[in-house]
Amino acid sequence: MTRSLVPFSDLRTAAYCPRKCYYRRTADDDREPPPRVDAVRELERRYEELLESPPGELAAEPIGVAPVRYRETLSATRNRLEEAGYWDRLRNPEARDVLATGRDCRGIVHKVLADPLEPVLVSTGEPPERGVWETQSVHAVAAAKALAWEEQTRVDRAWLEYPAYGVVRSFELTTRRKARYRRALRTVRELDGPPPRINDRSKCDGCEFAGECGVRTRTLRSLLGIGK
Fold this sequence. Notes:
The structure is a single chain. By secondary structure, the chain is of the alpha/beta class. Helices cover 44% and strands 15% of the residues. Strands 1, 2, 3, 4, 5 and 6 form a six-stranded mixed β-sheet that branches. Helix 8 (134-151) links the parallel strand 4 (118-122) and strand 5 (157-162). Helix 1 (8-16) packs antiparallel against helix 8 (134-151), helix 1 (8-16) crosses helix 9 and helix 8 packs across helix 9. The relative contact order is 0.17.
């Protein structure tokens, strides 16, 4: 029996909350990403232009921090990567927006680097203080495995870019990261009903499936202690 390929997005969601992944997979509507997603990802192609932009013009861009801080961070990122010999590879990838199909999963890889083969994902959100978010690690491992399967070669590293914050990070595909990917893959494949609710209820705040899930989220009144 041939197994169906799991989308990268399902793996990322399952790593965040398996129950949310179940409801998203069974939802009837096909949600389009908000316009800001494309606007933020477009920043990645314009780093050199943004570094030369005055603060007034930068303020009109979809950046996540103050213009002066953004330019300082992006400049430091460029200098660090230039010294390490990576900046040109990231600015001129082998390919962009590649649909990669592996043995177990498939999805879009925003940039593909060559010699050595490495995937780059472009995030529209905020980076953590260090490293990358676990959901993004799972996503990146999936992208790396799909590329490795297609090219029949080994992939040892992946990249995350946060263009709204001028941050670029890389990480090795460690045994622990691969184990998290396999756990998410197993979770998605075993979804035949709503899994148990997670303990971290902070993830439920703002979730579009909170009502359907039946979880009680923290309202402003409860946060302020009103009505106790």
